[in-house]
Amino acid sequence: MWAFAKAVISKRVTVGMFVLGLVVLGLVGFDRMPWEQDPNVDFPFVTVIVTYPGAGPEEIEEEILRPLEDEVSVLSDVQRVESVAQENVGTVGIEFSYEADTDAAAADVRDAVARVKTRFPDDANEPSVLKIDLGAMPIMTVAVTGDRPARDLRQLVEDVMKPRLGQVGGVASVTVSGGETREIQIVADKQRLEAAGLTISRLTQLVQLENMDVPSGTIEEGRRAYRVRVMGRARELQTLRDLRIDTPVGGMVRLGDLAEVIDSVVEPDQYARLNGNAVVGVRIVKQSGANTVQVAEGVRRGIAELQ
C-alpha cells in the first residue's frame, strides 16, 4: 500500500492526466447517453377485446369470454387469465411469466384468437389483441387553438402541421384528435326512393359507382407512356347533387331529387380540450430507440417554424 502511494506521489503529472482523461471520457459519455422518460420495459400482459353490439354481460360471458378463456389458458407460460363482461364488450387479460418473450406471447394469443373466433356469434366484431408498449406512448401532446372555425383549424393541422412534424428525425407517428372533420351527408327521402323503385343499399351502390376516379389504361406516344385516369369523383357539392341515378322504373333522376346533400361534419367520438376550451390535439410518438429529448427539441423547432 505504501509503495502504491509513493508511486502516485512521485508521478503526480501522470496520475493527474489519467484522472483528467477519466473525467473527459465521463463527460463525453454523459453527453452522448440517451435520455428516456420511461425505461424500455416489456410487460408480460396481453389483452383481448371483443365488441358484441346489443349483447348483455351474460351473453358476452357465455358466447365470447368462456370459449376465449378455454383457448388462451392452455398457452405456455400463462400465469393468470382474467375476464370482464360488460354491456356490448368483453375483455380478457392474459398475464405471462416474466421469462416469457412478450412478442412471442402476443403472437400465440393472436393465433388462439384466430382459432376461437369462428365460434363467436356472427354479429360479434373482430377481436383486438393489445400488448402494453411504453414505447407507443406519446412523448408530447400539442394543443392547437385559433380564431378559425373548428373544421378549418383541424384541416390546417392535418394539411400543414402533421406532415411537418412527421419529418422530424425520430418521430414515428403524428396523430390528430379533436376539432371537426368535414363529411358530406346524403339524407335520402324514403317516399321518393320508393317512387323511384330504389332502396337505401342500392342508392349507396349507385352513388359509389358514379362518384369515383377510374384508371383507364395507358396512351403511348413515341418513347413516352401516359397513364389515363377518368376523373369521376365530385369536387363540388352541386356536382354531387346533379349526379344522375339510373332507376329500375326507367329514366334518370338527380341525386338531389332523391336525397338532401349536406356539407356537414363527422359526429365526434372524442374531444380534445385544454383548460375547458376545445382545441385540436396533436400527439407525437417517437421511434423505438430514438432519443426522447432530441425528438422533443426537434418537434419544438418544427412548431416554431410554422408559427
- The level 1 CATH classification of the largest domain is Alpha Beta
Order of H and E elements: HHEHEEHEEHEEHHEEHEEHEEEEH
Q: Helicity, in percent?
A: 25-40%
Uncertain regions spanning at least 5 consecutive residues: none
Mean pLDDT: 83
Q: Treating each run of at least 4 consecutive H or I residues as one helix, how many helices?
A: 10
Count of discrete structural domains: 3
Secondary structural class: alpha+beta
Under CATH, the topology of the largest domain can be stated as: Alpha-Beta Plaits
Strand portion, in percent? 25-35%
User: Biggest sheet, strands in spatial order?
Assistant: 2-3-1-4
CATH architecture level-2 label of the largest domain: 2-Layer Sandwich
- Tell me, what's the shape? extended
- Outline the biggest β-sheet: 4 strands, antiparallel
The CATH homologous superfamily of the largest domain is termed Multidrug efflux transporter AcrB pore domain
Terminal residue distance:
66 Å
Radius of gyration: 30 Å
Number of strands: 15
